[in-house]
């Protein structure tokens, strides 16, 4: 098993069919999480929520959308990074109290989750999950209530003034202030979509580790993890939410708040693996980045061969770039079974590893008797790579030269990606030749970190500031 996907978030404002648009957007983000899905919708007076375990298409049926009426929505697809794999940890999270309701969806992972939770519990907060997302939600609620007290109102007076909900301008401003104060206290990676009965808020962490962008759809707005989700609702991409920015959308339009200085450190694996190839993140087209990484890999680690193939899906762009730069013909070589449910759970580790044989199969006519260069996005434990080499040799490949479009992964991620522990990462415990022998390839090479950065800069000359913790062990938080 390699890296596991993170999460995807979406927010819709000002669309009659906000729930349906959220469904389409979440479906286009399904690659970011296949464990659970959920959508919360406001009709202007109350928020309704539906979520469940499984893929978006498993969780939602036609009847759900008849109940989820409204023009504001937040949605989420999840792969667990903090908290167990249970319905209690499915998102969005919702909190209802006397002032109204709040729903929140989060992509990322907090590094000060435990101390914040302990502080909130000491203050009387209770939790229904083990997710760090619920901590963010409860922290916002606490700031909101505290701010109301600081304005000199008794609880009864404040309730009268805000008319028992979050609809007054007084209370909306108070809520935005509460969100701003809360996100200044959380540390880690976070891209948030937050809604009340009448407004939508997007927040990106000061390092911009997790992606978040905005678009327009008709007279409304879309916030989402990737631009491909904006395309899926026939919207127009506007821009990325900047690191350290809060975007507030309500009946008066869009307001931008810079809540802290940014120190941009986008997760570099978005370009290697996580993002869909048709997305653009922080001004860099993902597929172009993969082409360029393949070209850099070909220049750094050439080898005589008859065909270049990529491991579906995220290795395909790099393989095409490698072929283009090396002059070695590109071929399909491997077919992926699109109908394998990612929710399948094999009872033993060996059976889980053997699922590679079900997911991937070689095309013998492309490979038999040939010297093959195979491009993959990463090597994590090495078990998948070993089985992949076996598949290619079984199809008659004369030689198998393994090339990797990211540097050796030597450190686990603590910022929103579910990675093995350090001692399970093959590159942290083995030298290059040992890894080559372990996976059974005739040769093995990784792209250099410098080559990878240069590939990204060739897509956007001013590109700088990436989180490279999984390669270097140096994290931005």
Structure description:
- The chain is an alpha+beta fold.
- It is built from 18 helices and 23 strands.
- The strands form six sheets. It has a seven-stranded antiparallel beta sheet with strand order 3-2-4-1-10-9-11. Strands 5-6-7-8-12-13 form a six-stranded antiparallel beta sheet, with helices on one face.
- β7 (188-195) and β8 form a beta hairpin.
- α10 (286-300) crosses α17.
- The chain is elongated, with a radius of gyration of 23 Å.
- Mean pLDDT is 89; it is low at 149-164 and 342-347.
Structural class based on helices, strands and sheet pairing? alpha+beta
DSSP strand (E) fraction?
A: 15-25%
> What does the radius of gyration come to?
23 Å
Question: What is the count of DSSP helices, taking H or I runs of 4+ residues?
Answer: 18
* Number of extended strands: 23
Mean pLDDT: 89
